[in-house]
Write a structure and sequence with these properties.
Elements (H helix, E strand, L loop, with lengths): L9 H14 L3 H13 L3 H11 L5 H21 L1
Length: 80
C-alpha cells in the first residue's frame, strides 16, 4: 500500500469523521470508498466523458455505467 498525504479542509474532515464513526470504519476506509465511487475505477469516468461528447451511449457502456452505479450504491450502503 502506498501512503499518500492529502490536505483536507476542516469541513471535509468533519464529514469524514462523521461517516467513519457512523460506519464503524477508519478515515482511510471511508476516504478510499469515496474516491472509488467518484472515480469509478476509471471505467465510469471514461463512460461519462464519452456520453458528454456523444449524443448516444452504447448498450455496453450503458450497462457498465449501471453496474458501476449499483456497485457504488452498495458500497455506500455497506459503509453507512
Amino acid at each position: 500500500m502506498t501512503v499518500l498525504p492529502v490536505n483536507l479542509d476542516d469541513d471535509l474532515i468533519e464529514l469524514l469523521d462523521a461517516q467513519a464513526a457512523a460506519s464503524g470504519t477508519s478515515r482511510s476506509e471511508v476516504l478510499a470508498a469515496a474516491i472509488r465511487r467518484g472515480l469509478g475505477g476509471g471505467r465510469l469516468a471514461q463512460t461519462l466523458a464519452a456520453y458528454r461528447i456523444e449524443s448516444e451511449i452504447g448498450e455496453d457502456d450503458a450497462l457498465a455505467l449501471a453496474k458501476a452505479e449499483i456497485a457504488a450504491a452498495r458500497a455506500e450502503s455497506n459503509t453507512a
